[in-house]
Amino acid sequence: MKLIVGLGNPGPQYEHTRHNAGFRVVDKLATKLGWKWTERHKRAILASGTIGTEKVILVKPITFMNLSGEAVGELVRWYKVQPEDVLVVCDDLDLPVGKVRLRASGSAGGQKGLDDIILHLHTNQIPRVRIGIGRPANNRKDHKSYVLSVPTGDERILLDAGEDRAVEAIQMVLTEGLAPAMNLFNADPEAEQKAEERRRQQKERQEQARLRREAEQKEQLLEERARVLEHKLRSPGVNPDDL
Question: Are residues 168 and 202 in the same domain?
Answer without folding.
Answer: no
